[in-house]
Amino acid sequence: MLGKKKEEETVEVKSILAEGLKIEGNIISEGKIRIDGSVEGEINGDFFIFGPTALIKGNISAKSVIVMGTVEGNIKAERAELKSSSKVKGDVLAKVLSVEPGASIEGKVICGDYTSSSGETTE
């Protein structure tokens, strides 16, 4: 409907990992998380926003992902948005995928109905 925000856009960010913060290890979370620092490890959860200064080295599995920074690993999500400043070096598997002009992807992209026939799930 016109004028209504998507539910995920109105959900408050539960935690922010600031620019300059470096985490080595896996992250498992619920709710909406924003990461502007660097993470070396697997990331699993509901909703992640990777800001323009984010550097992720590891695979990501989530319901929703918005990427503005750099990801070196595979992304598996029900919904993925790659903004114009994003750089993804890895495969992207998403039920719903949007890619802004200027986004960079080096890897295989599987989206839409093909996600269920690829032998992988987004859950």
In spatial order, strands of the major sheet run 1-3-5-7-9-11-13
Given as residue ranges, the uncertain stretches (5+ residues, pLDDT < 50) are 1-5
Name the average pLDDT: 89
Which structural class is indicated by helix and strand composition?
A: mainly beta
Instruction: Write down how many β-strands occur, each being a DSSP E stretch of 2 or more residues.
Output: 13
Strand content: over 45%
Total helices: the number is 2
Integer tally of domains: 1
Cα separation of the termini: 27 Å
The dominant shape is globular
Q: State the order of secondary-structure elements, H for helix, E for strand.
A: HEEEEEEEEEEEEEH
Largest sheet properties: 7 strands, parallel
* Integer-rounded radius of gyration: 14 Å
Approximate helicity band: under 10%
